[in-house]
Every structure is written in C-alpha cells, then in structure tokens.
Amino acid sequence: MSDIITPSAQSPDPEKRPSLKESSDVETTSDLEAASEDATLIDMTEVESDDPALTKKIHLINNAIDEIGFTWYHAQLFCIAGFGYSADSQMAMIQSSVQKYVDLQMKGGGYPVATQVAYGAMISGVIIFGFGADLIGRKLCFNVSLLMTAIFGFFTGGTSSYAMYTIFYFLSVVGAMGNLGTDVTVFLEYLPSKYQYLNTSMALWWGIGQTLVSLISWGFMPNYSCKDLTNCTSSQNRGWRYSWYLNSGIVLVGALLRLFVLKLKETPKFLVSHGRDEEAYNVIIGYANKYHRKCSLTLEDLQKCGEIRDDYYNTQKDGHSVKRLWETTWINIKLLFKSKRVARSTILLMLSWTLIGISYSTFYNFLYIYIAEHGSSKALSSTYVTYRNGTIANFVGIFGPVLAGFLIQIPRVGRKGTMIIGALISMAVLFAYTTCRTPAADAGFGAATYFFINIYYSCLYAYSPEVFPTRSRTTGVGLCMICVRVAGAMSPIIYWFGSESGSSVPIWVCGALIGCLSIVTAFMPFEPSKQRAV
C-alpha cells in the first residue's frame, strides 16, 4: 500500500514528517509499536505540534486502536452515529417538503421565514454543542442532541400558528445541528486508521434520511393536503402534521438507541487532551477486553509522555460556565491558525464550506418548488410526480458516499482528488439540469445531482475533522458549520430574488459555485489518505 511508510523508507523532507517513534525519546513497549503494520503510518503531527506530550499520547492511542482493530462496536457506531447524519438531513428535508402547505394554512405564502430562521438555529446548535464538545466532551452532546431534535419535532407538528411552528422548528434544528458536529468526530476518534475511509462512506446516511422523508412526504402530502388552495384549513391539511410526527418518531428511535444500546463512552483522544490519561486507558482496555482483542498499551506508557503543556483544559478543576466556554473556544480557535500551513488549511476549509453552503442549500431547500415550476410539462407540476422524483433522487444519493469511500483509497486520487471529481461532475450535471422539461428527465438529472454532490460533500465532511487538532476538532468543525449555515441562510434570498416561474437562475448559481470548489480543493495543503488522524 502506498500509504504505509516504514521507518527506513521515510524521507527527511519536512513535508514528509517522520513517525513519532523516530522523533520521540519516549520509551514505549516494543509490542505496542509492532502491534500492526498500520502503526507505521505517519500521524498528522503538524496539527498537534504545539504540545509534544499530547502528540506522543495521541500516537500511542492511535497504535492501540489500530492494534485492537475493527469490532462490532465500530459497526454499531457507524450506524448509530451515522443516523445523526440522517436526522440532520431529515430536519432540513421535512421543511422543504411541507413548506408549501404550512404556508398555505397558516401564512398564505410569501417569504420563507421558517426556512430562514432555521439557519439561525443551525448556527446556535453549532455554538452550543459543537464548540461545547471540546469543553464538556463528545459523549453528552452526542446523547442529548438527537433527543432534543425528536421532542421539539413532535411539538412542531402539533402547532396551530406560524409563529409557534417557527419557534419549535428552530429548537428542533438546534438539536439536529449540534448532533451533526459530534457524529463525525466521535466516529473518527474511535476508528482504526485502516478503516478511516468509512468516515467518508458514513455520509450515505444523509441519503437514507432524505429518502425516508421523501417516502413519508410522498405517502402523506398528495393524499392529505389542501385541494382548495384559497381555503386551506387544518382539517383538510393534515399531511404535513403526519409527516412531522412520523419523522420525529424515527429520530426518537435513534436517540433511544444511543442511550440504551450503544452506551457511548467518552473518546480516549478527548480524555488524554484534557489530562485524563487513566480514564482514556480504561476506555481502551475496556472495549479491547469486551471484544477479546489484544491491547499492549499500558497506563505507564501514557504517563511517560509527560504532562500536556496547558492544564487550562482540565475542566475537573475549573468546571463549566458560559465564560469558560467562550475562553476555551477562543484558545481552540487560535490553535486552528497556529502555523502558516495549518492556517491555510483552516481558511480554505472555511471557504469551501461557505461555497457549498450557498450552492447546496439553494438547490436542496427549494427542490420541490423548483421541480414544480421550472419545466413546461404539466406533469412536472403534479404533487405526486414532484414527491416521486424527489424520492428517487434521494435514494440514488445514498450511493454517492459509498463510491467516495472507494475513490479515496486510490493512491493517485485520495481525499482531494475525490472532492475535485465530485465538484466538477456536479457542476456539469447542474448546468445540464436547466434543459429538463419532462418528468423522466427531471428524475434522471435530480438523481445524478444528488449522487455526485454527495461524493464531494461526504468527502469534505470526513476530511475536515481529519486535519483539525484533537483539542480543537469540534471547534474547527463548528466553525465550518457556521460558515455553511451562514452561507446557506442566503439560499432563501437567492431563490426569492433570483427565480421567477420557470427560471433556472438559482441552478446556474449552484453549478458555478460548485465548480469553484474544485479550485479551492486543489490548494488544500493536507492529504490525510497517507496519514493517521490525530
């Protein structure tokens, strides 16, 4: 394998950093260092270079996780953490699918206020859960967020005024967005390096969530929605409520599985980054023993690495508060810009998330409305055809991340090459979409769009936490989430001012911005395909 580098073959070039085993004078057990061939992978030490002791500890944790290998626990985590991706897409897609009929009943059309407010909720969720996860830990945010999403989702479906609908939808999205920032981090921090490609493929759960909502909407909306658009009463318009109830019930099942089946323990990398070596050791040994796997790591190995440089992260000493969240977040943000190369990576990632936020959200949030308006065929305006085609497109989108998981393992392609391929093909498909005039063409172009955009998007989601430092990982992901949501908040404005009946302007905007992403990706400094995430 091209991404396996033995000590004797390593280059002195600073861009090809030696493994920690060579660069450290820390004595570790020979069994641990020889645990598996994956132990010779180069760690992404540059992003943790501010604290040598922490870098050494992360290296030992990586070796231990690689030695234990892939277990049933990882399979469970792939599904249950992945379901968080599904919940996020469900919350956005449900609003897209019911918006027209909610507006007719409660508001009478006009500017999509609830959709706009949702972006404020997404930013709030990132700040509360995303930034908070680097202070209070991954476990609490991981477990609480989906439960919050489901409860307020039920309330949203039961509202009788547009103001209350918007408030409860806001609260539900806060939970969903907070959850999304921790899912990818939790899975990555438990995953053996040999299987890091699964962090990309896990995004197939987006497509599953989108398909679930499309099926729910397809089942309820055509049959239980207003036929008289001038007099749309609640008794004639139950479809959107049924959609919310069933969707929230599915999310609740996922939340309960997290609490009572997976029973997540705090990630070892978070624990050692906060000076809690013994707890980290106990977590690793605990799941090694549970699955009868060898683990050569000892507590003494971790303690020999020394104390982490800054005990400011010891929350057991100082506790939690809003002030502490702000101070810790500021320190974490500074870590994301600590060197020119790391700063360049952070800036390009934030730019990428901004561009995809505008383009993807414009297409995604107004998909059903666009399908009904942009073609000349009367069949395209059919509610049944609209939801059928949306279901087909979302189902096909499931397989984009699966293909991305294979592509990133090709040595000459990797993460960056996969993102460039996904962006360029998505641009071409979106431009071609503007020629669509029949239901069959709409189904085909819609499916192709979701498939190729999900190749890019899934790889970007996995790439981002891989190149952020451990102590600042969810803060970095949180900053990216803020960028994508602030940019996404522009999508209702673009649609409102850029589209008239039958206009394709929003789709041209989406395609052009996605094409620009291939250029941004080419300038990213890191290629994690040949390194282990820290």
Care to describe what's here?
The protein has helices at residues 20-23, 30-33, 52-68, 72-106, 113-131, 133-136, 138-157, 162-190, 198-201, 204-220, 239-262, 268-273, 277-290, 299-304, 315-318, 322-335, 340-365, 367-374, 383-397, 399-407, 414-433, 439-466, 473-488, 491-498, 505-522, and strands at residues 42-43, 531-532. By secondary structure, it is mostly helical. The protein has a single domain (72-265, 332-532), classed as Growth Hormone, Chain: A (Up-down Bundle). The longest helix has 35 residues, at 72-106. The two termini are 21 Å apart. It is a multi-pass membrane protein. Residues 1-32 are annotated as: Disordered. Residues 1-11 have a biased composition (Polar residues). The chain crosses the membrane at residues 113-133, 140-161, 167-191, 203-222, 242-261, 347-371, 391-410, 417-435, 447-464, 476-498, 504-526.
Number of helices: 25
**What does the largest sheet look like?**
2 strands, parallel
The CATH architecture designation is Up-down Bundle
* Percent strand: under 5%
Domain module count:
1
Task: Please bin the fraction of helical residues.
Answer: 55-70%
Main-sheet strand order equals 1-2
What average pLDDT do the residues reach?
81
Order of helices and strands: HHEHHHHHHHHHHHHHHHHHHHHHHHE
Shape: globular
Radius of gyration: 23 Å
Q: What is the CATH class designation?
A: Mainly Alpha
Transmembrane segments: 113-133, 140-161, 167-191, 203-222, 242-261, 347-371, 391-410, 417-435, 447-464, 476-498, 504-526
Keywords: Membrane, Transmembrane, Transmembrane helix, Transport
Biased composition (Basic and acidic residues): 13-24
Region (Disordered): 1-32
